[in-house]
Amino acid sequence: MADTLAVPAALPQAPPATFPDGSPAPAQLAVWSQVLGLIVRLHDREADADLIAGLRAARVTELFATLLPSDEGTQVAAAFAAMLDQLPAWPDDACLDELAADYADIYLNHGFRTSPNGSVWLTDDHIERQQPMFDVREWYEHYGISVPNWRLRSDDHVVHELQFVQHLLALASPAAAYDAARFLDRHVLPWVPDFCAQVAQRTREPFHAVACLLTRAVLMEVRDVLADLTGLPQDVIPHAWMREAERDRRAAEAAEQDRPFVPGLAESW
Hints:
By secondary structure, this protein is an all-alpha fold. The protein has one domain (26-258): Orthogonal Bundle (TorD-like), CATH 1.10.3480.10. The chain has twelve helices and no strands. The protein has helices spanning 26-44, 49-57, 60-67, 71-86, 93-107, 118-122, 131-142, 158-171, 174-188, 192-202, 206-230, 240-258. α1 (26-44) runs antiparallel to α8 and α9 (174-188) packs across α11 (206-230). It is globular and about 60 Å long.
């Protein structure tokens, strides 16, 4: 992946231009593919001086302010601008070391106890490299894609899943747009927004907190764009923790209903 930031030359127009099936819309999807490429860079490796300078030079805060019209998006874009303003124009080694340590605690050594892998969120046992990893691998293989080393960074790592959505948008075809919407609903949105929210609460550095909140806002906006283009409404499958909570709630209700009435322990009327 190149270090230079690919920033869209033009902003997408709303509403998006057609599909089913009066086709185009490739320009719309190409812009969002480039935006996701920028988001991927924020998660892929440690921030360095070139990245921070590139974010400033590319005027990405203005881009996000335009792309994210929702209340949440507006707030996140403003927070991103404020965070960049607070960083040194050219960060010294001490600043970069703090960012690198924070990055390692998020993505490498589980320091914040927040996993960047989907299997941990989507399975009852909350462990890595389970069925969700093999499910996304099937999607990748369908498009002739494989991850470089799944033992080092699993197929369902947040970076790989976002890269795959980026790839589908870059294809700019109706079929790929439909698949992007389905993949988001089944494999990204069930856990990545929660991962980002948890990181934002636990991380030490505003850079990573705002980057994660920005990721959430971009993903939701991309899904809205795809809903307009494809006609597929958002249909997110709840992750394992949500299912567990729902099971516990229903079990508690059932136990309450089955418990015999004992005078004095509950209201009788």
